[in-house]
Input
Amino acid sequence: MNGRARRDLTRRRLAQTASYAVLTVVTLIMLLPIYAAITIASARTDEDIDGLSFHGFHLFGNLADLFADGTFPRYLLNSIIVAGVAAVLDVAISAAAGYALARLSFPGRRVLFATVVATLSLSPAVVIVPTYVMMRWVGWLDSYQGLILPGAVSAFGVFLVRQFALGIPPQLLHAARIDGAGEWRIFTRLAVPLLRPALLTLFLLSFLAQWDNLIWPLIVANNPDLWTLPVGLAGFEGEHGTNFHLLLTATLVSIVPPLLILAALQRYYVSGLTLGGVKK
Amino acid sequence: MERLSRRTVLKTGLGLGAAAGLSPFLQGCGDNGESGSDDNSGTPQGTVKVWMHQEDLFNQVFQSAVADYRKQFPNVTIEPLQIPLPQLDTKLQTALIGDQAPDIVKTGGWTLANYIRKRQLEPVSLPAVGAKSYDEFADRYQENALSSLTFDERVYGVPIDFNTTYLFYRRDRFAQAGLDPDKPPTTWEQVAEYSKKLTTTGAGGKKIGWQWFYTTPIWSELELTPLVRGLGGRILSEDGSSSSLSSPEGIKALEYVASVGDPKLSNKNDVYGMFADGVAAMQLSGVFSVSLTHSFNSKAVFGDTFDCAPVPQWASAKEKTASGYTWAWTVPAKAKNKFTAWHFINFLQDRKVTDASLKTAGLIVPTKDWQKEPVAKGKEFQILSDQVSYADFGTPVPAWNEMAQALTDAIAAVANGKKPADKAAKDFDDAMKGVLG
Amino acid sequence: MSTAIRVAGASRQRRAGIGLATPAALFFLIFWVVPFGYSVYLSFTSYDLASAPEWIGLDNYRRMLEAPQFWHSIRVTLVYVGGAVVPTMVLALLLAIPLSRPGRARAVLRSLIFIPAAIPLFAASMIWRVIYSTGGLADRIGEHTFGVQGWLTDPDVAMWSVLVMVIWKYLGLYVILFVAGLQALPQNVYEAAAIDGSRAVRTFFLVTLPQLKRTLLFVLVIAVTGAFNSFAPAYLLTQGGPARATEVFPLYLYNNAFSFSRMGFAAALALLLLVVLLALSIAQFRLIRDEEDR
Output
């Protein structure tokens, strides 16, 4: 090895070390708020909070207090119901429509696809007023169906499945038809298994988006028995009193279910995002 | 219900101020008994859904009252629902139009005009509250409490949790600053002067004298009203159809708000929390602060660490002024069980319950002679009973939410130095042109 | 295959297509198309939910253009969108370049940086509300640097505080997307970008960045869309205050509809937002379609 090459190598190593140092510092900064949240959620009272360090570890006691209260478990349960049901609905309906759009020809296909594309970036906020009025007409305010249905099916979901379904070779479907398989059978036995990665991606993204939905449950659910975690935490304070340590204990609990699902379906997350972007 | 809501037998003078002003938007409001089914048989029965805001101390009183009521009327089920205070009004606005309207709602008197204009509340049912006439019913309560619930000569709620504002101050901080804890400021000029003396920046962070609420619409009104009225001005005209904050009085009041207090300081429990921690030495608050301050800081003891006094006046003021408010039990027009709702409300006015709510939660039910009750002995109640005679209970406007939000914006803009007082006042008046009237 | 069978097959397909697409079509009809049409109608009315909508023609639109709060909210939203998108993307790209190289340590760092992105926005808002509270983490850091500040109570500071939270929340997501984009680049381009030294910056701008254009545009579109739709941070951290300094458009809309019962006015506001988002929908679609064409 000559001197120049060695110098290059040294320089490269130095640069690499520097880059690791910077990345590590950035990572620590990114994790600092979470660490701070854990210290606060572990405080016995708010007076023990100093923003940075642990004063005792009372997290489990706080959890017990939280779950003894009655309202918090209800919010958690509602969130699981709402996000779970909405995600399943989204997957089922988007799977059918996405497959049909990609691989079947039927009247109205273009119109449906145009609608899907147009609503791709729209948020519920743009139709929140009329949808609210409609929910009132049908008497669905303060009900699970009112909470779940309006936002359940997303353009993103239909679009995502369609993109994936375009990858199903038409010859495969053709062969199945020649074998005498009915269209429904082809969809359930052939297409759905092939679409499995897309459907898992959609389930994940849909669940995460529903879990984080604040504005719709805030409006449609007056009854605290129907509140989901975002609404429940938004109104966490009593008349004049707020307990930060309990608020953050509740916050940490509300992070766990999406984190678990995300961890389980991690590889579908990245593939879904890079294909279709984040939902809503 | 039909029969009742058409009756307009109110004592002369009772609520005329409010009624006269409101009549333009209440015209044709006589037939609001149309919706909701009702059993007027005179037997309390069925389920009564009660909405109120979260208030732990009062909840204890309420729960035991429910138990007592159920003993007497086992056919009735009371279903209370607690909503956090900041969300109560938004939730109510949507609940009152739905098919699942509650039967009883604890409503802020200041938001009543909005609901009544939309015909969403029911006038008091005389048979259910056991009164032969409105006179008889009206005789039970303090006049000005009832008048703020009276629109077009009809009473739409039973007053509870009735309050005037007070000066709350920290005796300990006064002593530290060399001020006499037994001589709280009586004028706004003194408040400013004391506030300066009480402002320190030390190891424990900044401590200040006076602190305002900068983000709470109801407090914007309760704080600004005595300042403007004390100078002889008004925020809103008497009939609520126009605003006049950009009068010399309004502008001076806004300038005063900016001259004391620190909008950048905050506390998770707002000014109440700052006062309980001693960061703020003075605030305007209601009688509930006696128990609330202690509940936020067990070391803060009323009469020892902190105290209350009448609302300060301007040195030049000819007449005294203060601000006040009342909450009310109301029954939505769409309630399904109206008779039992009023019947239960009436039960809650029983002396046993009102005494308990005064004692436990510091909430005053303004019955005619609440001051004479043995539990109302404390000095805080004496001050209240003096102030009631001259307190301004607010001008009822249907667009109260928008008005009070704009008032809050004006205060925040001036206090933060974003706008001069005259500009903020003018912006408020301009915004109100499309909102009031 | 005979024509008869093919025709029968086509009609079976048509029936299946209709059957499979109908639930979704109904959903879009009921929850997008009808509300959209109804929204257009409501935007020409005065409606407080209590009494029937009253036709007022263009008044809501006129009122909108005349309301200082409307323009204020637009300005706030533009600052919010710019502040939430540009710094996050630049930072994410800077991080993604070293992080996209292979290696176990980098994979670990990638996962750790991603953690905030896995936290729901409402939960992140709660955490930062406490961080920004008096005596909280921000004050503790502020004490040693720029002095203690009213992070959420000073109108000049509050928006930046909210934006710091938003940047923190989305940085990890964009890093992951950029890493995926960088790793998909042809090996030689990627190698060139990976060279350390004086030429690296030049190579980056001349070679890597143009190749990454599609990923950049894609992230830009979803970031802008997300920012325009953003409601939770402002609602949960500041309620739009202080002095409306953080009243972003969706919050302004929400307040008008559900605090002030101005449904017609809010419908007009919503239509404006819809136009902006529709443009973003089309941009997003074209990006993805171009991807297919490649």
In short: Confidence is low (pLDDT under 50) at residues 1-38 of chain B. Residues 62 and 289 of chain B are 20 Å apart (CA to CA). The first helix of chain B runs from residue 2 to 5. Chain B touches chain C through 31 residues (CB under 8 Å).
